[in-house]
Backbone:
């Protein structure tokens, strides 16, 4: 694959288009003149099938209330079955305006104020918000870091659940930011503990399509041990990462247990349900039907960017720890061998002129790490790596 040509043909200038990633740098980082490699969306256009379907609707010229047609479900079900082996029916699916909003909804639906909810840092920072901003008690069980490879100590996990009378576990799978694609055995260990302690599992599977090798295949929580844990599962999912559609605010909530679904429906009814986003429906269906080959090329580009970054750091600054990219398109990097942890944020922004997510966003003890978005033009990754290498070497002189 000619990666430079793919980028030329499919990567676009986003600055000045009213986009969070590029046009909110001043508000978020206090500096508009940074190279943004932070929030998880892409400079890569959505597939041609998506753009064509949206253009056709634009030409139609009417954007009234929409409905979910059978052909939408067919496209969703076929993708899930073919790519992940998950079989769905209409009664399992509800629609929402995004996974983050659904985190809040699920926490409110299935727990009461002051209930304990557990997460495993370092983890996607809205998990914290969905617990703390809804008046729940935050419980953490940190992942163990083995030179960049992360695991969960199940004994510590179960102890934290029992001691804090936890009612819900928010699971990130694949795990953002540490790039883990959990094995079925690892997932079974987590889910078994939760089932024995009557803990509901809220599984964020938004990055499910980003697994990169046969050695680390994504396994949906719905499939673990033949679906043994479906009665404790609420799965959040969207096509927004896969096809760069986040701005169309359209996502799925997957629930297999009838009683859990009844409770979800009752809560949504009590707060007033939103209509499914018409353009989101059109875009997602078109992506699932016509975007597979395009998406596989995007994954190849992400792997290419990752390999360049990993190999360059290994050659130039070999003590940088780059977490193995099993899943997501977000690289987790440990700079502590070269910089005091508390200085990394200032170094990356002020010296390297980069806007990156920093470790403390994901963990109270995360100083020294950065997360770099690899789903971008190769030139952006090269620029970021060169700046980090150059500035660390200058610091060493």
Residues:
């Amino acid at each position: 694959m000619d990666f430079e040509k793919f980028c030329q043909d499919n990567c676009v200038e986003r600055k000045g288009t009213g986009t969070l990633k590029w046009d909110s740098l001043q508000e978020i980082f206090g500096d508009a003149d940074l190279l943004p490699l932070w929030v998880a969306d892409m400079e890569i256009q959505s597939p041609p099938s998506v753009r064509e379907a949206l253009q056709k609707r634009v030409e139609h010229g009417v954007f009234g209330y929409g409905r979910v047609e059978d052909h939408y479900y067919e496209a969703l079900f076929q993708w899930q079955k073919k790519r992940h082996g998950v079989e769905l029916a209409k009664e399992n699916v509800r629609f929402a305006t995004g996974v983050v909003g659904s985190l809040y909804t699920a926490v409110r639906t299935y727990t009461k104020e002051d209930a304990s909810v557990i997460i495993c840092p370092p983890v996607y920072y809205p998990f914290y918000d969905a617990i703390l901003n809804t008046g729940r008690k935050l419980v953490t069980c940190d992942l163990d870091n083995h030179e960049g490879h992360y695991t969960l100590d199940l004994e510590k996990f179960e102890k934290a659940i029992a001691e804090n009378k936890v009612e819900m576990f928010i699971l990130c799978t694949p795990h953002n930011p540490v790039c883990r694609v959990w094995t079925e055995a690892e997932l079974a260990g987590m889910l078994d503990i939760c089932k024995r302690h009557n803990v509901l599992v809220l599984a964020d599977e938004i990055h499910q399509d980003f697994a990169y090798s046969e050695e680390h295949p994504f396994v949906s929580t719905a499939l673990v041990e033949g679906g043994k844990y479906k009665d404790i599962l609420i799965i959040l999912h969207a096509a927004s990462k896969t096809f760069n559609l986040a701005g169309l605010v359209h996502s799925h909530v997957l629930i297999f247990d009838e009683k859990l679904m009844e409770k979800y429906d009752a809560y949504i009814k009590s707060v007033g349900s939103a209509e499914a986003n018409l353009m989101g429906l059109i875009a997602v269906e078109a992506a699932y039907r016509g975007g597979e080959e395009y998406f596989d090329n995007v994954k190849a580009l992400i792997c290419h960017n990752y390999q360049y970054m990993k190999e360059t750091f290994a050659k130039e600054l070999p003590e940088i720890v780059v977490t193995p990219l099993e899943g997501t398109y977000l690289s987790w990097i440990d700079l502590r061998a070269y910089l005091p942890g508390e200085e990394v944020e200032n170094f990356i922004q002020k010296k390297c002129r980069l806007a990156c997510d920093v470790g403390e966003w994901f963990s109270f003890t995360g100083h020294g790490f950065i997360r770099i978005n690899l789903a971008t033009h190769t030139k952006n990754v090269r620029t970021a790596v060169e700046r980090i290498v150059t500035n660390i070497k200058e610091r060493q002189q």
Notes: The mean pLDDT is 97.
